[in-house]
Amino acid sequence: MAAAPQTVEELTRTRAPRAPWLSAVFDFIRERPLGAVGAAIILLTAVLAATAGQIAPYDPLLNNYSAMLAPPSEHHWLGTDAYGRDVLSRIIFGSRTAMTVGLGASIIGATLGSLIGVFSAYFGGRVDLLVQRVMDVFFAFPVIILALAVVAILGTGAGNVILAIATPMVPRCARVVRSSALSVREMPYVDAARASGFRHTRIILRHMLPNVMAPILIMGTAFIGEAILLEASLSFLGLGVQEPTAAWGLMLRGAAVEFAETAPWMAIFPGLAISFAVFGFNLFGDSLRDALDPKLRTR
Amino acid sequence: MGYYIFKRLLAMIPTMLGVAVLIFILLRVIPGDVVEARYLTQGSAYVSQDLMNIERKKLGLDQPLWKQFTGWMTGLAHLDFGLSMWTGSPITEEIKLRFVLSLQLALMASTIATTLAIPLGILAAFKQDTWVDYAVRVFSIAGLATPSFWLGSLMILAMLIVFHWVPPMVFTPLWVNPWDNLAQLIWPALAVGYRYCAVGTRMMRSTMLEVLREDYIRTARAKGLKMKLILTRHALKNAILPVLTVISTEFAFLLGGLVVTEQVFNLNGLGMLFVEGISHRDYTMIQALVLLVATTFLAVNFVVDIAYGWIDPRIRYR
Predict the structure, then answer these.
(1) B259 → closest Cβ in A139, A144, A274
(2) Predicted model pTM
(3) CATH number of the domain at B91-311, out of 3.40.50.620, 1.10.3720.10, 2.60.120.10, 2.60.40.180?
């Protein structure tokens, strides 16, 4: 227990004002501990991805035939795979693939989806009806099947995988954003903008889009986690990024299945990495939703 | 009500047609066709273009696209899905047993998920911001974060190492040997059910939180009703609808979307058939599968819509 402040100096020191963003961070940690944990996991993954070259103990692509399927040891903390590649280094470098695909797909999917959603809500009537029917068609496809079809058309590789994963996200984002945009369209400021004779694109981009940012942010965060999972699924099927790139889903495939009994570390750790990263994004996304959606605020 | 049902059924037709057109085009945009998949990837030295053209003619791939499409549609109108381009046998035969497997798996997973999700969600909402709530939330968010296929391989691995036993790898229909059947399918059902349960729990929690703030709940508490009664009679009825929607939507997707989990458990279900179909460029097979999955999805949505009116009498259909 600290003693009560006595002098003026002590008083001013204890009440030193924090920077506003810093106090916002502290508030977030205090009010939403789970969300703060999520943010910390995201931060950790991002740092790993950014500094992979410096912190990974080995070259993730380096085959070492004298240490094939080596169990975890002081040299290889998480063991090695069938080519003697260090599992830890591959997991660290794999965070790059996960972050690139996750962020890329989420940004593309959420951007396209929200543009379509706002566009559809703004114009309403027949345009809206048509757009919604087209979205319904995409909805009736299971996510992974749509992604598989797009990969089959474009081919494998990181860029194409991002597009394939973003495709099923577009209609989902469009539907949610549309329903928010419908109520924004009725707002007086949109009428005012229209009355001022602004062009449609300006009203959509400058007046409506910023006011539906909350659902877009919520969906966008959720999409990152989903994209990482979907990328892992596609890679596991051999239809995502290709060997020898370090990617978590890819590490679970092939030899990891074949030698699961003798070298279980190959099957366990990359999966943990996937779960951990996605867990972080979901935890953060959940708290974000709670914070942005007034309906769910704590009593 | 009758008119509403009729209108809803009618509205499904354009969506189905859209799905059909979309998959028809998507498939033909994918480079290569079934003939190339059969002859060129086998590593054989040289296959004459003539032979391939003869094969294409046999399968009707030389016809203009509109003709292929109308041919497919005419067949569908007679409930004839045609022959698989890869195996040559009727598609209904190919799909039948796999559909049984996928359906059973989906049913098992949704039973597991629903029986867990509803009580867990209610509990978390009722105890909001306590350690119970945090535990349930962490459990369900972890469920969303864990790839089912990875969870599945861990299960197999654990059984192998601990019990020196692996679940049977060959599918036995329930009516042939229920024990073998369940011994095989319970594991994938659990692996998939966890994720599925997580989705349901989260939805249950958030709708329950909304309902618990309503005036009629406060009234019920004020008149001294037992909390158990309030939760089951007053709150649950009003909070269950969105949960019903997510559970049934997930169910529809489980039917055709278990592509990866099926691989891990070596299940020959619709997902596996789908992946094979894509790599073989088996147009007719994929078209039939996608239409089947989309129909299930729309049918489930339709049933849920009707069920809404039954559960919540305030909803009137026009």
Answers:
(1) A144
(2) 0.86
(3) 1.10.3720.10
